[in-house]
Amino acid sequence: MDLNQITIPSLDVEKASEFYITLGLHLIVDAAPRYVRFECPDGESTFSIHKVDTLPKGDGITIYFEDDNLDDLVSNLQKKGIIFNQLPEDKSYLWRETRLIDSD
Question: Which entry of 20, 47, 67, 104 is 20 to 30 Å from 10 by CA?
């Protein structure tokens, strides 16, 4: 089994698209303002965003992307204006992790 895609809701698909393009995803389907789909720069998985009138309540959605050079990636994204809630740090569960919140 392989993961095909993850789809998340957005109030503003075009604004969300800009954010994920800045992160480095490649736009492969542009049906904005209602839907967009990206492919990750590595691997086979895709990621899409669809328009909703209201966002789901509760804890929301957590998405994990991986990069072998996390510190360099974070530094480059900060130069592009991306704000991180947590800078890269080694976790007790053996991952190096950073956190950010998308525009929605």
Answer: 67
